[in-house]
Amino acid sequence: MYEKILVLDFGGQYNQLIARRVRDNNVYAEVLPYTTPLEKIRETGYKGIIFTGGPNSVYKEESPHYDPAILKLGVPVLGICYGAQLITYMAGGVIESAPVSEYGPVELHVEQSVLFEDIPSHSSCYMSHTDYISRPPAGYTVTAHTADCPCAAMEDREHGIYAVQFHPEVTHTEYGKQILRNFLFRVCGCKGDWIMSDFVARSIAEYREKIGDRKVLCAMSGGVDSSVAAVLLHKAIGKNLTCIFVDHGLMRKNEGDEVESVFKKQFDMNLIRVNAEERFLSKLAGVVDPEQKRKIIGEEFIRVFEDEAKKIGSVDYLVQGTIYPDVIESGLGASAVIKSHHNVGGLPDCVDFKEIIEPLRDLFKDEVRKVGTELGIPDFLVWRQPFPGPGLAIRVMDDITREKLDILRDADAIFRQEIANAGLDRSVSQYFAVLTNVRSVGVMGDARTYEYTLALRGVVTDDFMTAEWAKIPYEVLEKASKRITNEVKHINRVVYDITTKPPATVEWE
Ligand code: XMP
Q1: What is the pLDDT of residues 245-269, one digit of tens each?
Q2: Is 81 noted as a catalytic residue in this protein?
Q3: Binding site membership of 325 for ligand 1 (Cβ less than 6 Å)
Q4: Is 169 a catalytic residue?
Q5: 169 alpha carbon, distance to own chain's centre
């Protein structure tokens, strides 16, 4: 059995991020609610425990508290932000409302401590707090401060209890990764023996045991998350998993066939591909408004899925490719709500099932990709750029026809090929073509043309909330433009979109 760290969740925004930073060091971490019984924690035999931050004040009665006995288990503890204040409170120190709240990057001064080994005495840390530790508990030494926070870190080295007011897990804390490494390897004595294949093997075994002979249904989109979730489940329960792949006819060139081939031929999965192009295109005929397009596609998707699911009969579980960022954005768990997300909750009342299974809900995107590779899913799927649910419907401006979709598919395929040929397919976050509703005059072979303008778009972003336009080399754009106007009929002009988000969005519709 590999070593485990417990991340005890007190409702902080970054609790999974902490777990992920731990896992980055090949030490397995799991997040459990603060209500987890002490006995269960003792039995699991964790190498260390991290208390997360949280939005509360330790003195409020309704705030999450914990049995002080946790500090006496003999397991090293690191408290972060609220977690640090809770240690103070539980061990008899004093927490007060800080005269100056700190939000954002602040200069940190550290003293000699095992937690701060290999870290300069002055660096930057990320703070986000209104309360602070005004008097550490007896037996604790203050090991760091900032201008407005006299106790930014403290420790009871003898008992292995450490506390930091700042957030080592966020990138704004310059040496945060080193601080966590020091805790894991120098304080907890971890060896770093956990690898992604353990997660895969463990998940497969768990689901095999949990599901047994029961039936599972999965809505497969061909996107990274649903593909990885489906293959994982397939490895666990084989043909008892049925995947429904609704082909709405709005996919990129050859995409539907590629998806089908991987899952049917390579993995021999029970995949039903529903050719619903006609159904979707007839519903979309003449529709110009982008939100209307989205609504029609979303509803039709559910109807098609429902029709197919009915043919299968009742199932016990529904698999979803929810990943951790979807969970935080939806404000599930103990974190505060930020915004609702369309992936979570997914297909509501249309299928009769007992439970939703979300095998990737604790993972970040790059971890999901690692799982995908581990499962043997080909790179073109694992490294696929995001593709919107409504597909090319929101990349053909104005009304949608099959002819316009085909023009766009051919042009988009050329652009993607040229990006891949230039080795840019992993550094540009998302890149695609848009068939605009602008026609312009051109000249081809001495004759006047009056054809479509195609827009190319490439963006670089971490979270898609904001984005830079990708500085794709001119030669690559030139080659793509030349090939598109030569090889794709009805396009006589190609433009490149050089707008950031905001003010523009990534998609044009
Ligand atoms: P925007 O255009 O909002 O796009 O800047 C941000 C990211 O979201 C994707 N996107 C969608 N994904 N359904 C989806 O599943 C949609 O309706 C939708 N609209 C935009 C977009 O491709 C980009 O990755």
Answers
A1: 999 999 999 999 999 999 999 999 9
A2: yes
A3: no
A4: yes
A5: 16
Q: Which two tokens stand for residue 368?
A: 């999901």
Copy the structure tokens of residue 491.
């396009």
Check residue 403 and give its pLDDT: 97
For 21-30, how does the pLDDT look when each residue is reduced to its tens digit (9 = 90+)?
A: 999 999 999 8
- Of 385, 434, 464, the residue with max ligand 1 atoms within 8 A of its CB, to mutate for a pocket test, comes to 464
Residue nearest to atom 4 of ligand 1 (CA): 506
Cβ-contact 474, 497 below 8 angstroms: no
**Residue 227 C-alpha from the chain's centroid:** 14
Q: Is the pLDDT of residue 426 over 80?
A: yes
Confidence of residue 171 (pLDDT cuts 50, 70, 90): confident
Residues 17/89, Cβ–Cβ less than 8 Å: no
**Residue 378 CB partners (closer than 8 Å, separation 6+):** 262, 266
Q: What is the mean pLDDT of the chain?
A: 92
Catalytic status, residue 167 = yes
Alpha-carbon distances, residue 24 vs 88, 95, 231, 364, 366 (angstroms): 29, 32, 23, 11, 11
pTM: 0.77
The answer to whether 9 and 52 are in contact (CB under 8 A) is yes
The CA distances from residue 166 to 78, 242, 286, in Å, are 12, 47, 55
Indicate if the pLDDT at residue 453 is higher than 60.
yes
Return the ∠ at Cα 228 (arms to 329 and 328), rounded to 5°. Answer: 10
